[in-house]
Amino acid sequence: MDVSKTIPKAPIETCRTLLDSGLSALNLYLSEYQIVQLIDFIKLIEKWNKAYNLTAIRNREEMVNLHLLDSLAIAPYITGQHVIDIGTGAGLPGIPLAIFLPDTAFTLLDSNAKKTRFVQQAVLELKLNNVTVCHHRVENYYPNTLFNTVITRAFANLADIIKLTAHLLAPKGVLLAMKGQYLDAELAKLSTPALAKKSVIPISVPGIAAERCLVRIESLTPTEVMSWEK
Hints:
230 residues, alpha/beta, 20% strand, globular
């Protein structure tokens, strides 16, 4: 039996109320058009989830909190005009952020062809002219233009994230790794240069009790990346 069919769907009006309240708590201000885009994105995930298994979240209200607001909570920390979301999956956090920042160029990268097909369709239906979708493994992706901000969400441990994405960062670029609260083991594996350039920013997401944080690491030189182990 499809368990998702037994879960009552929250009315779209309820989702809209949750979204409006969450955006206010985050001090983020979006136009009516942008808010409609965000709600339409949830509808697309819900529709495609039946065949593509994009996310374990089936409840619309949870999608607002765990997908939309969780993604948008890091918006104030994005810098520059070129941003890449590594391991974007169903387009998270890339699509909500691209909706919020329409003048910023986003690249959404994932190695899963099924998921990038969904993301490409979502980009078309939401009319996101600032988004490029790439089906690549991150270690094999060498773009013509480097990125001011690299974002990862539930992608890998910090040490691996840095080593896999270092070649994508422009000089003075920043890596933003979305993480939970327990970071001691991951931080212990970082090289001395990485530790010196890192900051851990607490993130409060409306509707989510679990603690979140954002690890910000300034771009490392090739020498700093190569001399990795302590």
